[in-house]
Inverse folding.
């Protein structure tokens, strides 16, 4: 064999050896990558299943204690609900969102101080333009929805509807807000049950139900409270009067706060006047709560909004439609709205699904 041929063969063998070596290295890399991914998946899988030896992958959510045993009685359920709520005097979140189907979500904050101080505010995520303000202090409650969010409807104002607590039932207030603010607070996860009330109690494998009559000026109200059979969480409340259902609250995604010994819902689905033409439905998702501490000066937190160019209508100046009387022509600021103005349009907010 000639020298050029031998050189060519040696050159080809050397390149083939290098190629095989490179392929071997690549194969080892692929194998190591596969082993790493498989191990990581196994770790994540064992962590998600609650493996105690891999606690740094497991959920850090504290576990709520079981507060109800098998076959609880009425007073056992009442005591479990009240033991959770009685520790909460104040509640606040600045990391919430308010949403309805078909509309962009709004940044929101919520604060309450028992028995009847409440503030729910929502604003556009871009520009922080106010969109909703619902509140209550010791004397008044108010409700405002921005009916002209784009500012492109000239002359269309969004009045703040106001009434005193003691004038709620004999005014046009139920036409704007069907429940008194104290019951709205109860619907937000801070529920108190009267141990002396006469309850109709029914128990099932997944829920406990208490029905009772509650005192209210005017038409009596019926309240139905649905309770978790182990943790004592109030997962649903419903208020009815002679005309039908006034409000429903569905509460879920509870979080237990071990430092306070309380559980609170992080998803609140509220329906006012469900099934009626005037229905309003919205959902509040809460990031986290501050318990028994409030951010901001109380004098401002519980103060009725002063929005530039927004009229204020005193609902006590209008008799409730159920009383059959006509509307007084002027509110506390001299505005003379038509009767239809006493019900905000809510920009067509649909029912929760």
């Amino acid at each position: 064999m000639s020298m050029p041929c031998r050189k060519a063969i040696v050159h080809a063998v050397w390149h083939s050896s290098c190629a095989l070596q490179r392929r071997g290295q690549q194969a080892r890399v692929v194998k190591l990558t596969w082993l790493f991914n498989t191990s990581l998946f196994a770790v994540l899988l064992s962590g998600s299943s609650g493996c105690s030896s891999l606690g740094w992958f497991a959920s850090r959510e504290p576990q709520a204690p079981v507060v109800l045993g098998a076959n609880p009685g009425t007073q056992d359920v009442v005591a479990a609900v009240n033991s959770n709520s009685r520790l909460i005097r104040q509640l606040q979140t600045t990391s919430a969102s308010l949403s309805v189907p078909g509309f962009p979500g709004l940044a929101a904050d919520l604060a309450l101080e028992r028995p009847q101080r409440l503030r729910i505010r929502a604003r556009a995520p871009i520009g922080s333009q106010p969109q909703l303000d619902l509140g209550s202090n010791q004397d008044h409650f108010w409700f405002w929805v921005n009916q002209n969010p784009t500012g492109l409807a000239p002359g269309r104002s969004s009045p703040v509807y106001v009434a005193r607590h003691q004038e709620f039932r004999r005014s046009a207030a139920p036409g704007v807000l069907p429940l008194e603010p104290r019951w709205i607070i109860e619907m937000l996860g801070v529920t108190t049950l009267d141990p002396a009330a006469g309850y109709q109690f029914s128990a099932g494998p997944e829920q406990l139900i208490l029905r009772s009559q509650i005192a209210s000026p005017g038409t009596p109200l019926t309240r139905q409270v649905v309770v978790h059979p182990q943790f004592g969480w109030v997962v649903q409340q419903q208020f009815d009067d002679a005309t039908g259902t006034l409000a429903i609250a569905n509460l879920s995604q509870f979080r237990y706060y071990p430092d306070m010994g309380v559980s609170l819902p992080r998803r609140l689905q509220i329906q006012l006047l469900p099934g009626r033409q005037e229905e309003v439905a919205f959902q509040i998702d809460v990031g986290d709560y501050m318990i028994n501490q409030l951010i901001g000066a109380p004098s401002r937190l519980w103060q009725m909004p002063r929005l530039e160019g927004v009229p204020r209508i005193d609902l006590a100046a209008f008799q409730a439609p159920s009383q059959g009387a006509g509307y007084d022509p002027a509110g506390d600021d001299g505005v003379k709205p038509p009767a239809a103005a006493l019900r905000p349009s809510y920009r067509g907010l649909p029912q929760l699904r």
